[in-house]
Design brief:
There is one protein chain. The chain is α/β, with parallel strands linked by helices. It has a single domain, classed as 3-Layer(aba) Sandwich (Rossmann fold), CATH 3.40.50.2300. The protein is 36% helix and 12% strand. It contains 5 helices and 4 strands; from the N terminus they run E-H-E-H-H-E-H-E-H. Strands 2-1-3-4 form a 4-stranded parallel beta sheet. Helix 1 runs parallel beside helix 2 and helix 1 crosses helix 5. The longest helix is centred in the last third of the chain and has 21 residues. Keywords: Hydrolase, Protein phosphatase.
Length: 164
């Protein structure tokens, strides 16, 4: 009997799933594509205020400037089954990390971490929420999520095993 290779899976989580986590989802998709890898990637929010909505227009514009299409994404809320479906659930800030740790069922397989903890020198740092600020805040958010996803990909997708 041949072992089927495990497809790594990542879920990115922010508040409403319309700004930070969709950008992180797209950044990680690009990292996996660059490496020619099949990876399951999704995003969600801790709340359901925007369920079914496309990402914020400023997030979509930011994605377009970086050659990515956010128009096909739709907001959803984190579900209990996500903790079994995904290997890695990545919070975009410490409030999301705390919420996820509260929601995480005992014994679930998911590794719940903060995105920028994967970037050298950034431990404990939040990805800023650009929602209430000017449009250039979305570029700052993009730079942070892109850096975080590059670090995640280097750690988990570049020939290493998908375990902690």
């Amino acid at each position: 009997m041949t072992d089927t290779p495990h497809t790594p899976s990542f879920l990115f989580v922010c508040t409403g799933n319309i700004c930070r986590s969709p950008l992180a989802e797209l950044a990680m998709r690009r990292e996996a594509e660059t490496r020619g890898l099949m990876v399951e990637i999704d995003s969600a929010g801790t709340g359901n205020w925007h369920e079914g909505d496309r990402p914020d227009p400023r997030a979509r514009a930011t994605a377009r400037r970086h050659g990515l299409n956010a128009d096909v994404l739709r907001a959803r809320q984190v579900r209990q089954d996500d903790f079994e479906r995904f290997d890695h659930i990545i919070a975009l800030d410490r409030s999301h990390l705390a919420a996820l740790k509260t929601l995480q069922p005992a014994g679930s397989k998911a590794h719940v971490t903060l995105l920028l903890d994967h970037v050298a020198g950034q431990k404990g740092r939040d990805v800023i929420d650009p929602y209430y600020g000017p449009e250039d805040g979305f570029e700052t958010t993009w730079r942070d999520v892109e850096r975080g996803c590059k670090a995640l990909a280097a750690r988990y997708l570049d020939g290493s095993t998908i375990t902690e």
